[in-house]
Design brief:
240 residues; mainly alpha; disordered C terminus
Length: 240
């Protein structure tokens, strides 16, 4: 399980770098985690593990998940260019083993959580890239790359079944964060139709009231709601 632990360490170091504002270092850490993740996929021991039965109880979760806290609330105002400054979700996801779980006995662990790990790490990499783009003045090319990164995270998340079963709150949080941040980017790129689609989907998630919405921290809840309300205004895009 040393390789999986290395993935966790790289991911959590990347989160620490984000908290410290070292976005380039964070991106390197997340990419290193993805490299180890790919190596795990290629190892014969994991291919063999698929054929074996896990000795852990199937309903138990050997992972603990949390989000770091990075102050990110922005009041709605216009910048010098007359553009609205939206709220951006900035809290990356930490992952670790549950110390109460018998990890070494669970030979099928990687096969069951690989999609979950991929989604979380790419999501964190997307956040780091988003911050980096913000530092460099929101260049169109950089924002385009960030959108592609969020799209990969979105696809990985929909290939996952582990978070749905064991950590639904954090899955909801990641979905909310991606819809919100992609809506912000599309607005920056003046692609107002896609921006409205993201915020409309975000509004629908809020209406459905999944557990993740109820568990949002106050700054995230208020900021995302403000984006949703602004995105619902028919003349919001043209006014910006």
């Amino acid at each position: 399980m040393n390789n999986i632990k290395a993935i966790f360490e790289y991911n959590n170091n990347g989160v620490k770098h984000i908290s410290n504002g070292s976005y380039s270092a964070a991106k390197k850490a997340f990419r290193a985690a993805l490299v180890v993740l790919k190596e795990c996929e290629d190892q014969q021991q994991y291919a063999m593990a698929i054929e074996q039965k896990s000795s852990c109880h199937p309903s138990s979760s050997p992972l603990t998940i949390d989000t770091c806290t990075i102050p990110s609330f922005r009041r709605r105002k216009r910048n010098d260019d007359g553009d609205i400054e939206h709220y951006i979700f900035r809290n990356a996801v930490l992952i670790d083993f549950d110390p109460k779980s018998d990890i070494d006995a669970d030979v099928s662990l990687y096969q069951r959580i690989s999609a979950c790990l991929t989604a979380i790490i790419i999501f964190n990499l997307s956040l780091a890239s988003h911050y980096n783009a913000e530092c460099y003045g929101w260049s169109t090319s950089e924002l385009g790359k960030v959108v592609k990164m969020y799209s990969k995270a979105w696809k990985a998340l929909h290939n996952d079944s582990w978070l749905i079963t064991h950590h639904q709150i954090y899955r909801d949080t990641i979905v909310l964060a991606m819809l919100n941040n992609m809506g912000v980017i599309f607005h920056k790129l003046a692609n107002f139709d896609k921006s409205r689609c993201c915020f409309k989907a975000l509004r629908n998630v809020f209406i459905s009231k999944p557990q993740g919405v109820l568990e949002l921290r106050p700054d995230a809840h208020n900021g995302i709601m403000m984006n949703v309300l602004f995105g619902d205004q028919p003349n919001a895009a043209s006014a910006a």
